[in-house]
Amino acid sequence: MRHTILVAVLCCVWAQPITAATYFISPTGSDSNDGTSTGSAWASPKHSLNCGDVIIAASGTYSASNFYTGKWGTVTCPAGNNVAWLQCATFDTCKISSTTSDGMWVDQSYWGVEGWEVTTSENIYGACFHAGPSSGSVHHIIFTNNVANGCMGGGFNAYDKSASASVDYIVYVGNIAYNSTQESGACYSGLNTYQPIASDTNPGTHMYIAGNFSYRNMEPSTCSGTAPTDGEGVNLDTFDFRNGGGTPYVQQAVVQNNILVGNGGRAVEIENNNAASGQAPIFIKYNTTYGNNAAPTGAYCQGNGEISLVSAYKVQVTNNLVQTAAASGCSGDSIFGLEVSQSNNTTVVDNNWVAGLSGNNTFLYASQSFAYGSANVFGVSPAFANPTIPLAPSCAGSANVPACMATLIANFKPSTDEAQSYGYQPPTTAEVYDPLFPQWLCSVNLPSGLVTMGCFQLHLTVSVS
Q1: Is the pLDDT assigned to residue 336 strictly greater than 90?
Q2: CB burial class (10 A; 0-12, 13-18, 19+) of residue 390?
Q3: What percent of the chain is helix, strand and coil (3-state, nearest 5)?
Q4: Domain of 370: which CATH number?
Q5: Which tens digit of pLDDT belongs to each residue from 66-114?
Q6: How many domains does the chain contain in total?
Q7: Domain limits for position 83
């Protein structure tokens, strides 16, 4: 007799190594060179490449003009699951300091940027790292292991140009966004995506923000002609594309395993994801937040939460570790651990550890039949080891961003045993199955130690005897 047996097997989906070319770039290079050696280095990434190719940047100080819009080459990527890398030879030794523009503006698809530090000043619209179209839409852009160290117009920005040109498959992994919202011409955040447009309808996570450290992003007293509206650690903004009449974005987004502390606005804000035609599924998991909503004034103060969902449906908030540092702030209004405003029962907020001062754990407004889940732990201090928020990062000599942020990580480790399974978890090299991990990132050779790679999938095999 023949029997069919179903056996669960964890199977690796790492891509096979591919043949790739290596090129070089330097502060003294020339784009008339062939780029194939350090002695014939390029000046900019404006060269046609293939996915998997790497441009190694020599340590030094670079001009932002060589990394602005129009300075990125076309990358050929038939499989659509990789990038060409602009990689600093040694972490945090490739520097850009711009007074006139964005530090970097990636305006072509299939690019990854690794190991750079950028500062912008004086120009009120200058972002440190910017992904966005100069003409048609762009997609598959990775910023990883970079430092935005004082910026005028946002630390890491990705946003639309028009109702038909925007961004998709944006990845922010293992970066620092510090003091990146200084300008007054508009209102920005540490890590932001605004009004994306889907480049395809493939399932799985399209927008991925994980393993980042976003802190002390404080807007000035006015921005865009109003009191501050942003200054968040992470902001997923207007996926319903209500501004400008674009098609609502309905692809999956994940904000996971970040530390977000001392920002002027919320730690995480999801706003405007409630189009009648459909909403993006958004997951907010394993983030540690503390002392946000620190701006003394703001345009929207009532109900501010460390994690805030505003006019947002289909959001899942789980496994986060949240503590407020003050009972009130912006214009004297209360600060809460969690905020849900104008949502509904498609949203789930459960199994979080939330310690709001003066009992300000949750705020709820006009959200139909939504209710906070019964597995949340409210009002118990996680007893952070030393909840002190550092000043500007100094990463010289560090191996990577987590090493540079070792003190911050240690400061916000909970001493309460039961709280230690919530919030930020140190990355591991263990074989992990994570259905929220973007599987296309398994092909791109991300630097190790920034996030836990969820590239192991559960498969069923059939055995016959």
Answers
A1: yes
A2: middle
A3: 5, 35, 60
A4: 2.160.20
A5: 999 999 999 999 999 999 999 999 999 999 999 999 999 999 999 999 9
A6: 1
A7: 14-422
